[in-house]
Design a protein that fits this description.
GO terms for molecular function: nuclease activity. The protein is of the alpha+beta class. The chain has seven helices and eight strands. It has one domain: Roll (Bifunctional nuclease domain), CATH 3.10.690.10.
Length: about 170
C-alpha cells in the first residue's frame, strides 16, 4: 500500500466533473478520481477547515464516530473495477476493528475531517495513476536498465547463499 495525500480538487476540462487528486508522499504519482459535486464541496470544506453551519452527511458520520468513541484508523482505496474505485474505512473501538465499504470520495471527506491516513493499493496505483515527476521516473527506469545490463548468470548463483547444487536435486 502507498500512503497518499489530497493534492486538491480540479474540474475535468471536457466533462466539467470534479476530480479529487491524490498524490503519493514522494510527489511521484498522482491518482485522479472523479467524484460528485456534493463530495467535492465536502472535501474542499475539510481542506479549508470551513465548517458547515449545520452538520452535513460527512460531519454527521464524524460526530457518530466521536460520540461512540471510535477511531478511524485509515481508509484504503483497494480496487478499481469497471472504472469504479472501491474503498474501505477501518474503524476501531477498543479491541474491536471493523471495515466498512465506502465510496472513495466519502472516505476521503471523512478521513480529512479526522486526520486519518489515506492508503491506496499498489495495483490501483499501477492501473490508474499518472506520473507527476517524469524526470525521476525516467532516471529510475534508466538506472534499472543499467543494473540489468550489468548482470551475469553468476550473479544469481553467488548471492543469497544459492549454489548450483540447489538446482540439481
Amino acid at each position: 500500500m502507498i500512503e497518499m495525500k489530497v493534492a486538491g480538487i480540479a474540474l475535468d476540462a471536457i466533462s466539467r466533473n470534479p476530480v479529487v487528486l491524490l498524490r503519493d508522499t514522494d510527489d511521484r504519482r498522482a491518482l485522479p478520481i472523479y467524484i460528485g459535486q456534493d463530495q467535492a464541496k465536502s472535501i474542499i470544506g475539510a481542506l479549508e477547515n470551513q465548517p458547515a453551519p449545520r452538520p452535513l452527511t460527512h460531519d454527521l458520520f464524524v460526530n457518530l464516530i466521536d460520540d461512540w468513541e471510535m477511531t478511524l484508523e485509515r481508509i484504503v482505496i483497494h480496487a478499481l473495477k469497471d472504472n469504479t474505485f472501491y474503498a474501505l474505512l477501518t474503524l476501531s473501538a477498543g479491541e474491536t476493528r471493523k471495515e466498512l465499504d465506502a465510496r472513495p470520495s466519502d472516505a476521503i471527506a471523512i478521513a480529512l475531517r479526522l486526520d486519518a491516513p489515506i492508503w491506496v493499493m499498489e495495483e490501483v496505483i499501477a492501473d490508474a495513476s499518472i506520473p507527476v515527476d517524469r524526470a525521476a521516473d525516467e532516471a529510475e527506469k534508466q538506472a534499472f536498465r543499467e543494473f540489468i545490463s550489468n548482470l551475469s548468470p553468476s550473479d544469481f548463483t553467488q548471492q543469497g547463499g544459492i549454489s548450483n547444487d540447489t538446482f540439481e536435486q
